[in-house]
Each structure stands twice: as C-alpha cells, then as structure tokens.
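Last lecture ended with a question: if I hand you only a sequence, what can you say about the shape of the protein? Today we answer it with a concrete record. The protein is trans-2-enoyl-CoA reductase (NAD(+)). Below, first the input exactly as provided, then the predicted structure, then a couple of comments.
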Amino acid sequence: MQLAEKITGNVARSVNPHGLEQMMSQQIATVRSRGTYAGAKCALILGGSASYGLGSRLTAAFGQGATTISVGYARPPQADFLGAAGWWNQVYFKRAAEKAGLVAQNFNANAFLSSTKQLVIDYVRQELTEPIDLLVYSIAAPKRVNPNNADETWRSVIKPIGHSVTDFSLNLEQERLVEQTVAPASAAEIAATTHVMGGEDWELWVHTLRDAGVLAPNCKTILFSYEGPTATAAIYHDGTLGRAKRAAEASARRLQQLLAPTGGEALISVNRSAVTKASAVIPGFSRYVMALLQAEQASGTHETTVAHQDRLFREMVYGDQRQMDDEGRLRPDALELSTTMQAAVAQILPELTPARFTTAMPGYQAYRQAFRQLSGFAVPGVPAEFDWDELSDNYD
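The predicted structure:
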C-alpha cells in the first residue's frame, strides 16, 4: 500500500514508519560516533518519544549505557490509522536498545496521572535492580487535569501577555507565509498554561518517586527551557510559555534544596531552537527558525536535536564543560545566541515576508525537510510504501 503524506495547516496527519526507523538508526549512529561516557545507570525520560526527550534517551542509552524508561502518550496503530510518529519512535528505540543488550521500557500513558507514576514505581521495584538516577522532564502537552480536582482541566495557550502580537508564520500546507495577530492571554489562561507547562508536575514526579524509594540519593533531574532571541520574545519569552518556564525555574530551585543534601541535583537547560511539531504552531517562531537554519547552513554550524542533547549531557550534565548563566541554568543554546549567529539571522529575516518569500529559500527547504522527517517522510532512500502485516510485527 502507498503512504500518502498529509499536512493540514502546520499539523502532520500521516506517518511513514520506515522513515522513522531509518531516522532512529541515524540518531543512534550520531551518539555512537562520539563514544561512551560515564553517566546514568537508570534513566527515566518523561516525554521520551520525540524531540529533546528522545534525544536525551538516545544519549542515555547509547552514550551512557543506561537502562531507560520512557513515559509519554502517542496514538497507537488502529485498523484505519498507522499510528503517531511518537509511538513508532518508541517501538524502534526499544528494538535497537535491546539489540544492543540494553534494557528499555516504554509506557504509552499520560505522564500527568498518578496511576502512571505508580506504573513506573512498580516497574522499578519489580523488574530492575538499580534505582532511577536520572530523571528527564520533557513534557509538552496541551492540557492537564488538576490532580486535586478531576472536574477541572487546565489548557495551555501560546499567547503574548499584556498586548497583541502580529507576526509572519509559515503555513506548511500552503507553503507560504501568512500574517497572524494573536490577542493577549487572560489571567486565567496565564495561570492554566503555568499549571500545564510549568514545574508543578515535575515536582510531583520527584517527590512521588523519592517517597516510594525508587529514586537514587544522587539522582540528577533536568527540565528543558527556552529563552530564544529578541525576534521571538513577545510570543515566547515574554508570553504565556515564558511565564510557565519561569515557574519551572522556581521548581528547580525547590528541587535542588530537596536533592542536594544527598548528592542529587536539579537542573534547568536552556536549549536551542528546534523544529518540532509543537513549535510549528507558535506564531512567528517558524520564520525565525527558517532564518536560523539558513544562517547555520551557510556557516556549517547546524546542530541536530540529538547532537544537541548528546553535547548537553556529555559535556555539561556529566562533564566538566558546563556553560551556565547568572540564574544557574545550563546554556547549550549559547552557539545559537552568539553575536555572530544572531547578526547573520538578522540579515535573513527581512527576506522572510509574504511578499518576498519563495519556497526556494534554503532556510525554508531545511525547515520543511526537518518537519517532514519528524513523521518519517523526506528520508533519503526510504520508500513511501508499507505492508500492514510486516509493520504489525513491530508491535509490542
């Protein structure tokens, strides 16, 4: 059967499992090419099916040799649906890890639920001999049920605070830039976004695992944040998502006080801009990333998500080359935000307007390919065909 790629607006509606399998092999090869390093023995990755969570799991397993547990929900295959990309990423990761003699466990579940936390606790107690000594929090979700009131659901929004913002965004379906105005968030929306995207659930995970006795005394835990340049500040850093990240940083300080006495550590890493399914819908963000990718292509300095995460853990989390800011946050994004790179980006941005935009622009080509590869398309040498019976052999 033929695989048909479908993008609606900026949302991918289809998947090529063969392409995802090839992308997984390439990412594993990136980590392995850099050799092994001392790190975790048992890593729990919350949000390990894609992007920075998947990159963290890859370097933990194939760089550190760790047992890895991943929690995150992605729709599995059904009779008329091939499944979400994240589901296949989990399947192909587990297969590759076990082939390499590593332990890998996937929980396709809602990370916010207390029942999911108990699943992890039971698994560590019953199946493993080592406690969790690395906890990565990389959850990007649209909503979260209040753990103290099941009738209340918080929904996150991507909005500015205090004023409207107008910017150009990429419409991948129509392959054109469109002007978009986003109204400011209400106080309720700001609070809800903080509940979903802040550090509340991160703290719950750490406390729950620690109280259950499955967290190593010297456990490191890390949450990923984002600062970005002036070009994205109004909608991100100064908006609802930025407010949530400030709350997460406060959570890190509280967790540091909890873990430090036994040799543990709570970290925030400010990561580079990346093409992800979640970031594709942030107004103005795709325009900036296209300019960044074009500037990085010209200078030969582009860093993939897995390479970024491998450098973060290899050099900063477990290495002696930490780059930290005045707030004590790790800054692997320093390469992107350097004066030289931002000057190059600033020269390209004026070209990225609806009137001047063309699909031949190198930044657009790089962005579109990266976005398509998140679903397994545009992977060189991978056919757009599948055999349902053959794919079903991959099911756990």
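Comments.
1. The chain has one domain: 7-158+191-281+303-336+379-389.
2. The longest helix spans residues 240-259.
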